[in-house]
């Protein structure tokens, strides 16, 4: 009953915001369509999509941090809520009311075991407040010199509040799954489970500190992008202390212009940094909106708030690079074969049919000005088409697409004539040359040889186990089940015969792997 009351309250806020206007009733089951039409009788008339997005953000803020986080999370799942709603939800800003500074100090003292005055020479009121934590500006003595630091503190009782709201989210998700087959297909319970995992990671600030550390190691040598240094000695589960960034937020366009910073170059850095980290490292900042990005005095892009990070494996990196490269070169058959080869599209579909569908996406963009073509929109269309060919939802690709949408939006706000394709081309081409060229082939062959080495290394153990099994069988037959001499002889002969052919099969298999590894060098 309590969950029902909470759901009713949340539903009323969402309806009054006009959020159901994003729902295409022709795309939902009849029962759900009737519900949507009835609920929309209670929403204000004449709302534009922009106004719907603004009202939805305000209503979610009113419902509390858990609902803000739910909205931010659903912004990454355009496959669930639709592109229009996802775009509206991506506008949620982390501008929650702050909690008292004295509570923040108490949390710091519990986590670090010392009073705030013993650690910091100054400690400000909150300078930013988000759904899960807030940030204070502080100074501390380091080698007799005062250093500015940012101190991020988790909201008090946020874990308990989020756990309570999760029960409501699960109740609503189970209701949707029972409502219709379409509701079951969208897997709302799995969506809530994903949200739960994401937020649980965000609620341990030591993990965010680890993300800063890993990303900083990945970008050693880069001159255009950096992240703040973490003060590990003053970081705990609920407290993160790091370098203070004296820079201009990217949402402050006037400040960027006044500082004389090249906005076109800054837009290029934003896009190339994201693509480089995703393709080269498979580890990228998955929340790169203007509020989390600064430009410092040297013109470098500085990223903060690494609570949400994306990871993609070698297969996904190759997918992203070759898809972008294939559209640039208009090689639709290659893109189609790639989807089938790595298992994103079932082999029951022909590559030629899929290539025809891809051509319907790619051809309309050619002949247009590059600055008018949205790479993020193109990937969105690609995922729509792949759904027709039974491609299952890939969460890591959805997060990648969402981040690309945000990054592209940031770049175009900095430079309305920004050419996304020109910016992406050197990064994608470098990856293709590096990994699918001669050097990449050599590394692939080396990986194959390492696998062969592991196989050969374990070969004696495998043969020993086969021989041991034959010996145990003979001993068992002698001391346990009584077999006549002829049967024992036949079993021994069979074991010896099997061992002989096992050895030769292993040798031939190893030789075949070596040949395949060498052959891969000449592909």
Automatic annotation (TrEMBL):
Ranges where the ABC1 atypical kinase-like domain occurs: 92-338
Does the record's keyword annotation contain Membrane?
Answer: yes
Q: Which UniProt keywords apply?
A: ATP-binding, Cell inner membrane, Cell membrane, Kinase, Membrane, Nucleotide-binding, Transferase, Transmembrane, Transmembrane helix, Ubiquinone biosynthesis
Q: Where are the transmembrane segments?
A: 504-522
Q: Which Pfam families does this UniProt record tie to the protein?
A: ABC1
Q: Which SUPFAM superfamilies match?
A: Protein kinase-like (PK-like)
Please name the GO terms of the biological process aspect recorded for this protein, alphabetically.
Answer: ubiquinone biosynthetic process
Cross-referenced InterPro entries? ABC1_dom (IPR004147), Kinase-like_dom_sf (IPR011009), UbiB (IPR010232), UbiB_bact (IPR045308), UbiB_kinase (IPR050154)
Coiled coil feature spans? none
The record's family statement is: Belongs to the protein kinase superfamily. ADCK protein kinase family.
UniProt name for this protein: 2-octaprenylphenol hydroxylase
Source organism (scientific name): Afifella marina DSM 2698
Q: What lineage does UniProt assign to this protein's organism?
A: Bacteria, Pseudomonadati, Pseudomonadota, Alphaproteobacteria, Hyphomicrobiales
């Amino acid at each position: 009953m309590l969950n029902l009351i909470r759901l009713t309250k949340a539903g009323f806020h969402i309806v009054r915001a006009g959020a159901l206007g994003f729902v295409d009733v022709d795309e939902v089951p009849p029962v759900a369509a009737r519900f949507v039409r009835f609920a929309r009788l209670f929403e204000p008339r004449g709302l534009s999509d922009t106004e719907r997005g603004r009202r939805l953000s305000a209503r979610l803020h009113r419902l509390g941090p858990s609902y803000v986080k739910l909205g931010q999370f659903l912004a990454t799942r355009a496959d669930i809520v639709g592109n229009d709603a996802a775009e509206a939800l991506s506008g949620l800003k982390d501008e929650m009311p702050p909690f008292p500074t004295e509570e923040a100090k108490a949390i710091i003292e519990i986590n670090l075991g010392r009073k705030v005055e013993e650690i910091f020479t100054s400690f400000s009121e909150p300078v930013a407040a988000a759904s899960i934590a807030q940030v204070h500006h502080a100074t501390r003595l380091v080698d007799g010199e005062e250093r500015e630091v940012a101190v991020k503190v988790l909201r008090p009782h946020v874990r308990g509040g989020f756990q309570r709201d999760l029960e409501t989210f699960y109740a609503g998700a189970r209701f949707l799954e029972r409502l219709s087959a379409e509701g079951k297909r969208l897997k709302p319970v799995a969506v809530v489970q994903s949200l739960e995992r994401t937020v649980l990671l965000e609620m341990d600030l030591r993990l965010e500190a680890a993300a800063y550390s890993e990303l900083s190691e990945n970008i050693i040598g880069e001159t255009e992008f950096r992240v703040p240094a973490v003060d590990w000695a003053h970081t705990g589960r609920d407290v993160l202390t790091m370098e203070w960034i004296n820079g201009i937020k990217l949402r402050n366009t006037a400040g960027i212009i006044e500082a004389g910073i090249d906005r076109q170059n800054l837009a290029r850095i934003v896009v190339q940094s994201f693509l480089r980290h995703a393709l080269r490292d498979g580890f990228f900042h998955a929340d790169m909106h203007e509020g989390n990005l600064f430009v410092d005095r040297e013109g470098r892009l500085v990223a903060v708030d690494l609570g949400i990070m994306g990871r993609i494996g070698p297969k996904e990196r190759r997918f992203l690079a070759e898809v972008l490269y294939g559209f640039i070169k208009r090689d639709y058959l290659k893109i189609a074969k790639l989807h089938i080869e790595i298992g994103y599209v079932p082999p029951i579909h022909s590559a030629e049919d899929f290539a025809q569908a891809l051509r319907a996406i790619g051809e309309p963009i050619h002949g247009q000005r590059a600055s008018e073509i949205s790479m993020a929109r193109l990937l969105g269309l690609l995922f729509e088409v792949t759904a027709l060919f039974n491609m299952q939802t890939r969460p890591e690709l959805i997060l990648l697409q969402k981040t690309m949408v945000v990054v592209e939006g940031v770049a175009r706000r900095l430079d309305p004539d920004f050419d996304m394709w020109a910016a992406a081309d050197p990064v994608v081409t470098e990856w293709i040359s590096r990994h699918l060229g001669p050097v990449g082939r050599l590394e692939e062959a080396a990986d194959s040889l390492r696998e062969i080495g592991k196989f050969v290394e374990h070969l004696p153990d495998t043969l020993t186990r086969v021989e041991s099994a034959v010996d145990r069988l003979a001993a068992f037959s002698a001391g346990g089940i009584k077999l006549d001499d002829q049967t024992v002889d036949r079993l021994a002969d069979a074991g010896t015969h099997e061992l002989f052919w096992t050895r030769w099969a292993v040798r031939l298999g190893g030789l075949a792997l070596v040949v395949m590894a060498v052959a891969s060098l000449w592909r």
